[in-house]
Design brief:
By secondary structure, this protein is α/β, with parallel strands linked by helices. The chain has seven helices and six strands, in the order E-H-E-H-H-E-E-H-H-E-H-E-H. Helix content is about 45%, strand content about 10%.
Length: about 200
């Protein structure tokens, strides 16, 4: 199989409440994006993050293009399913980055306050900064694909996904797709229709 050129990073994130049919769609989108040369930037949370990751690792291009999966701390996750710093497999303990404190400040600005959050919650929101901006905070994604419940008439969603979304907006990420909207689903479906045959050939 010939290598394909790397075209950029995409953030695959979303609510833990993401419906099963959307998780299946995220899996397929991740495969298709790798077939086009885009690599995953995510956080390994249950639900949407996991669906994007599983789609990514199923791609024959995964090890060529790589990924950047940021952990809020080393050993995050439920007992028996904990994730650890493992750069060879593209898992990074973001809490050890020299940019962590700066990222915490950025996350606070994006969220507005830490009200209602403990240390773990703050760490999760800080991790979201790296999903969008990269470990050095200067390597933003080219797109963000997510599932979130809209809040009001502005481009905001419920939960921690909103931190990633607001950062993407602030960083000028123009390609923002919410799979919880008709417009987002239309764009996702059109993308899969366009690259479906190529994806079947790649897998």
């Amino acid at each position: 199989m010939l290598p394909i050129p790397f075209k950029g990073w995409y953030a695959g994130v979303g609510s833990r409440e993401t419906p099963e049919e959307i998780l299946a769609l995220m899996y397929r989108l991740s495969q298709a994006l790798y077939a086009q040369g885009y690599a995953l930037s995510s956080g390994d949370a249950e639900g949407a993050d996991t669906a994007f990751y599983e789609g990514a690792v199923s791609s024959p291009h995964y090890h060529q293009l790589g990924a950047r999966i940021y952990l809020a701390w080393n050993g995050v996750g439920k007992e028996g399913k904990k994730r650890y710093h493992d750069p060879k497999n593209y898992f990074y303990d973001a809490s050890q980055f020299p940019t962590w404190e700066t990222a915490t400040s950025i996350a606070l600005e994006a969220r507005g306050s830490w009200e209602g959050l403990g240390r773990g919650g703050i760490a999760m929101h800080t991790r979201n900064v790296f999903q969008i901006m990269g470990a050095d905070l200067t390597s933003p994604v080219s797109s963000i694909i997510y599932w979130g419940k809209p809040v009001g008439k502005t481009e905001k969603v419920k939960g921690g996904t909103n931190t990633a979304l607001q950062l993407a907006i602030k960083c000028g990420v123009k390609n923002r797709i919410n799979l919880n909207t008709d417009e987002g689903m239309e764009r996702a479906t059109k993308f899969l229709d366009q690259y479906g045959n190529e994806l079947k050939g790649a897998t």
